[in-house]
Amino acid sequence: MRLVVARCQVDYAGRLTAHLPMATRVLMLKADGSVLVHSDGGSYKPLNWMSPPCTVREGVGEDGRVEWVVTGKNDDTLRIVVDEVLHDSRHDLGVDPGLVKDGVEKHLQELLAEHPASLAEGLTLVRREYPTAIGPVDLMCRDAAGASVAVEVKRRGEIDGVEQLTRYLELLNRDPLLAPVRGIFAAQEIRPQARVLAADRGIACAVVDYDALRGMDDSEHRLF
Amino acid sequence: MRLVVARCQVDYAGRLTAHLPMATRVLMLKADGSVLVHSDGGSYKPLNWMSPPCTVREGVGEDGRVEWVVTGKNDDTLRIVVDEVLHDSRHDLGVDPGLVKDGVEKHLQELLAEHPASLAEGLTLVRREYPTAIGPVDLMCRDAAGASVAVEVKRRGEIDGVEQLTRYLELLNRDPLLAPVRGIFAAQEIRPQARVLAADRGIACAVVDYDALRGMDDSEHRLF
DNA sequence: ATTTAGATGTCGCCT
DNA sequence: AGGCGACGTCTAAAT
C-alpha cells in the first residue's frame, strides 16, 4: 500500500471519460495495482479509481512532470499527472483476515428457524424459504393447534416489511389446504408505524432478542 | 484529511453488525468526519466505513488503548480499537473542484438526436426516448424513404445492447402503422461479437465519432 | 424534501 | 464463466 498526497490532475477513459482538474488529493495505490483518488469529502466512493486487475506504469510526461498511467481491462485507462508531491509513504499491511458480517437478516432467519418457539408458544417449523408465486416466505410454521403461520423476518421492522407479509398472507389464504394462515412479523426492532399497520392487518409482532437467540444457538452446538 | 496506518480492530453496528479482527489497515479520516477503513486489496469499497454526516470521538478504552467511536445517523456506530499506530499524518486538501464526466450514454444520445444524419444518409429524428411497453427506444427516426428506424445508443457496443434493440424491433414491428421498422446500433466502439450478432439480426451498425459530433455541436451553438 | 432511475456500481450466490 | 439479486448500496435529477 502506497499513500500519496499530491496536487494532481486525473483523466479517465473507459466506459465513459471523466476529468479532474488540478487539485490536491489523496492517492491510494494498493498492492494489487488498483488506484483510488480521494478528496476530503464525499462518501466512501473515490472521485476516480481503477479497479483490479490493472497495472500501474510510472512515467514522465512531456513537460517533465511525473505521471501514472493505470491500465485496466478493456483498455480502460486512468492517467494521473502529478504537479507536486506533498506526501509519499509505503506500508506493508499483509493480508486482511476479512470482514465478518453478523446479524444480517439471513442469520436471524436461521436462528429463528432453529428456535421457532421463541416467536410464539408451541410454534414449530414447516420449512424455511417456503416458496410462493410472489417469492419465498421466510418461515412457514404451524402453531400448537396445527394452524399455519407465516413469518416475515427483518432486522428492522418497517412498513414495507408488513406490506410484504400482507401480500404473502393474501396469497396463502387462497389455498384451501393452508387457510387460515396467520402472520407474525419478527424483527430486532419494530417501528411504531409498522406496529400500527401490522395490528390493523391482524398481524402479530415479535421483537427478537438476537443475542439471546445466539446464546441458545451456542449452547446447543458447542456444549461448553 | 488524516491518514493513519494502524493495527486495529473494527466493529460496526447499524443496519447490520460487522466485525474486523485485529490487523494492519489504512484509516482515512476525512474533514467532514467520515471514516474509511481500507485494506490492501478489494475494490474502491472500504472494508468498513462511516458516511457523513457523522462525528468522531477519540477516547481511551478500558485497557488503555486508543479508540475512535464514530457516530452517524440512526445510532449507527463504528468503533475502531487501535493497537499500534504505524503512521499518522494530516493534510490540508482544500475543496475539490469536482469531477467532470463526459461521454455518458445520455450525452451521446443528445448529440445524435441533433445530428441523426451522421448515422445514415437522410435520417431525420421523430423523437428521442420514444416510449414502448418494454421501455423507451433511444432514438426513433425516419429515413429518406419515410420508413421507420429505431436507434439504440451505447458508448460501447456489446451483445446485450444488440439484444435490447432486437426486443424493441420485435415489438415495434407488430405495430402496422410503424412496420417495417429497421434498426441501427450506434456506439463509439462496437465489439466484433456484437457486430456479428447485429448482422445476423439484420441490424445496421454505426460507429460514432464522438469528438466530431461534439465539434459540430460546438460550432452550431457557440459560433466562434 | 422525497422519490426514482442510473452507476466505471460492487459483491456474493448459484447454475 | 455468466446471470441474477441484494446492498450499510451511492448519486444526481426530477417531482
TrEMBL record, chains A, B:
This protein's UniProt keywords: Cytoplasm, DNA-binding, Endonuclease, Hydrolase, Nuclease
Major localization listed first in the record, in broad terms: cytoplasm
Pfam families in UniProt: NucS_C (PF01939), NucS_N (PF21003)
InterPro entries attached to this UniProt entry: Endonuclease_NucS, NucS_C, NucS_N, NucS_N_sf, tRNA_endonuc-like_dom_sf
GO MF annotation list: DNA binding; single-stranded DNA endodeoxyribonuclease activity
Keyword Protein biosynthesis among UniProt keywords: no
Subcellular location, record wording: Cytoplasm
Domain of life: Bacteria
Gene Ontology cellular component annotations, sorted alphabetically: cytoplasm
Endonuclease NucS C-terminal domain: residues covered: 104-224
Enzyme Commission number: 3.1.-.-
Domain Endonuclease NucS N-terminal PH-like: 2-97
HAMAP family from the UniProt entry: NucS (MF_00722)
Family: Belongs to the NucS endonuclease family.
Function field: Cleaves both 3' and 5' ssDNA extremities of branched DNA structures.
Name of the protein described by the UniProt record: Endonuclease NucS
